[in-house]
Amino acid sequence: MKYIDEFRDGALARRLAAAIAREADPTRNYSLMEFCGGHTHAISRYGIKDLLPANVHMIHGPGCPVCVLPVGRIDNAIELAGRPGLILATYADTMRVPASNGLSLLKAKARGADIRMVYSSADAVRIARDNPHREVVFFAIGFETTTPATAVAIKEAATLGLGNFSVFCNHVLTPAAIANILESPEVRELGTVPLDGFIGPAHVSTVIGSQPYEYFSEEYRRPVVIAGFEPLDVMQAILMLIRQLNDGRAEVENEFTRAVTREGNAKAKALVADFFELRRSFEWRGLGEVPYSALRIKEKYRSFDAEARYGLEYRSVPDNKACECGAILRGVKKPTDCKVFGTVCTPENPIGSCMVSSEGACAAHYTYGRFKGVPVTAAAAP
Amino acid sequence: MSDVRSDYVRPVDFKRGRVDMTHGAGGRAMAQLIAELFVHEFDNDWLRAQNDSACMEVPAGRMVMATDSHVVSPLFFPGGDIGSLSVHGTINDVAMSGAKPLYLAATFVLEEGFALADLKRIVVSMAAASRAAGVPIVTGDTKVVEKGKGDGVFITTTGVGMVPDGVDIGGDRACPGDAIIVSGSIGDHGVAIMSLRENLSFETGIESDTAALHGLVAAMVASVPGIHCLRDPTRGGLATTLNEIAAQSRCGMVVRERDVPVKAQVNAACEFLGLDPLYVANEGKLVAIVPQAQALHLLSTMRAHPLGRDAALIGEVVEDPLHFVQLETSFGGRRNVDWLTGEQLPRIC
């Protein structure tokens, strides 16, 4: 496939792997966090870990929109979907996230709630247009990548004069989450989580640009390399981070130059600024309450804000006690450190959100990597 | 005095008519629909006998029986429709035991209000598929449900067939060292269906691969009677089929990604939909597992058949107490190919 295969070239991957092995200093460790679930997925799906030296460690970050959604927010969505006559439109990823009382959106749907899976926010607007006598709520989740699409949906609904459409806004912000991790006691004081550098988001950065990460390189002296989601992008970024660390540099570098500029997408940013404003605080699964880390719909578009329209009240619900998603999302633990991983908690019956989305650290490891460390016969060895 | 003949019956209106509750009520309307549509199109002595069951001579030996319900949406798609699919689906299930399919039964659940023109189009397509395959539909049933309780038409087909002597094919027979062969490119059916879904609709030249595979299977078992496993990778795709066989045979598998045939358009569609072609449904492909020594002979037999032209050797069965299916990625790493979680796309067949 043109423009795809070039970024998955096995021969080039081996050359990059050789360069990483050559340049990585064997006397030290490199602990690199890939912030995005998209990178986590690529690392697992293409078996990138197999190509890295043992002293280069990849730590999975919290950049999976489904994973960081707290139980209380899913409870709110289920509460909305339970209102008579209401249609809840949602991205498919949220359907299986466990909520309170053993429920999930999928189970609520089986009990009669009208929940429709959509591929884009525009589909939600179309459902509202086609069902003028029913209330339609779009369950908006995601980082800066999906926020402009939600803004477009509200804009279109306003233009069409759709009085039956609203948005349950759960959009969150990447820089706030990175700052939260760098400020966490494990990283800052205890030193239990060595964090030498970041692979910066791909799609998020196409919108916000590379400029917002400059603060982390300056203030926290951590290098950031923004990388695309293809496996060669990830390997190239790892090599660039190792070079920075070897040179004692802490800069923002852009591997994903084919899509990311320093300023980002001005049009998308303006659109987001027009419809959304910062929340004072927002709960993240794993990170807890993070100040100024999420967006809400501006007062002048209040009629499109499902929280105001239906008087939703947020109630924080603790995660299942056995679940380590919180620690995994902060990079403090690995999926295999969790007692319920692969036993009680599987993609079919997820206990925690990291086991739900294919971008979640647990689901990625379960699906693609759980044979690691399991002896297989000689015939299967590479 | 009227000049209408005393035995005149107004024919069923296949142009503008719609299914109503009387078409399933057992009365005259139902009898007329059966006579003018099903018996007329499927046209054989068993149906013309108008009994509740069909009575057939069967040879001595081992008989197989398989049944399959079809609820695909949309009903008509590039390369086929629910009618041809319902014939091919059951013929293939019978054939995957190595058997020669002999007879089919068909049950229709119709929704009140369904256009008779569409029903006729489907039945004509079924009749053509059954004739082309040489497997007659010898008995059937029709039921009608109220509007809103169905989705146009659901079709269940059941088939019987006879297994040739000396053939012993089953999902539990894969052995470490066996070769894994796929009969052609994967994912075509799923992508063709997805391209029409209302919330996705994209343009593609990909057609469903729906086809009856019993001719290919007959050639295969004639040439290599010692085939261990055959299965058609329908819902859940190649990945699911390999996991099923690995679990049944209590072994593992290693598949080479670069050897699995996938059309460029299917790859592209999967890329932007976020799907993995290994999990996308097929309706005219099969997976064969065969002792390594006979693999190349079987491969050349398959490639000589029009439905196996693009057959490829994609991997090996290995010993693995955990029954994992693993993929050697083109990128150079290795990963699990796990069971499908949840539902990739509902109502694909």
Model description:
The complex is a heterodimer of chains A (382) and B (349). Chain A has 382 residues and is of the alpha/beta class. Chain A folds into three domains: 131 residues, Rossmann fold, CATH 3.40.50; 146 residues, Rossmann fold, CATH 3.40.50.11740; 45 residues, no CATH class. Chain A has 15 helices and 13 strands. A five-stranded parallel beta sheet of chain A has the order 2-1-7-8-9, with helices on both faces. In chain A, helix 11 links the parallel strand 8 and strand 9. In chain A, helix 1 runs parallel beside helix 11 and helix 5 packs parallel to helix 6. Chain A is globular and about 65 Å long. Chain B has 349 residues and is an alpha+beta fold. Chain B folds into two domains: 143 residues, 60s Ribosomal Protein L30, Chain: A (2-Layer Sandwich), CATH 3.30.1330.10; 158 residues, Alpha-Beta Complex (Phosphoribosyl-aminoimidazole Synthetase, Chain A, domain 2). Chain B contains nine helices and 13 strands. In chain B, the strands form three sheets. In chain B, strands 8-10-7-11-9-12-13 form a seven-stranded mixed beta sheet. A four-stranded mixed beta sheet of chain B has the order 1-6-4-5. In chain B, helix 4 links the parallel strand 4 and strand 5. In chain B, helix 1 packs parallel to helix 4 and helix 3 runs parallel beside helix 4. The mean pLDDT of chain B is 93. The chains are: A alpha/beta (382), B alpha+beta (349). At the A-B interface, helix 1 and helix 15 of A face helix 8 and strand 13 of B.
